[in-house]
Amino acid sequence: MAGSSISLTSLAEVVTRAKSLITGERKIVGLIGKPGAGKSTLSAQLIEHLGAQAAILNMDGYHLSNLALRELGRADRKGAPDTFDALGFTAILQRAKNQVDRDIYFPVFDRAIEESIAAQGVITPEVKLVITEGNYLLHNENNWGGVKELLDESWFIEIDDQLRIERLVDRHHKFGKSKVDAHSWATGSDENNARIVGQTRELADVIINLS
Asked: Does domain 6-208 have CATH number 3.40.50.300?
């Protein structure tokens, strides 16, 4: 479907689209967007409407640890494509797709400590729609190439860049950075990553713009 993307402009339309995917076998929807686009917010709203038949599997749980990033010399680029365990994330998606009769545990990223907590999230057998959200689900470098083929649909969130950056600054400040450092990170490292994410927009099946 990519190349002739469907456009959705309201939460009601997004919910209806999600419900249409809840059929017999489990489906995986990828929710993609630049840093600060509102992926986590939309995922949570979908769970509110879909209940126990849906679950969120967040890509951020597969951040490399801060120790690993320091050892690799990548700590100042945390959030870039090569600062995640992309193969581990691909493997958990494969399990979510195929092991539908058992509980599947996965790590969840905790922004308060900037680290992932092992086995904090779970996909239970009753889940018919897995919503996986992250920046690089359509990226094809740094070991990300196996993700796209596991998605039944890919949804890309569009948002005004100024609003998105303001959200990022507020988020970084909330979790401990000074206002100056928060702005520097949002307009530096985050924007470098945003450009990479933006290049994958044309590959998405659905474009979402709720602004």
From this structure: yes
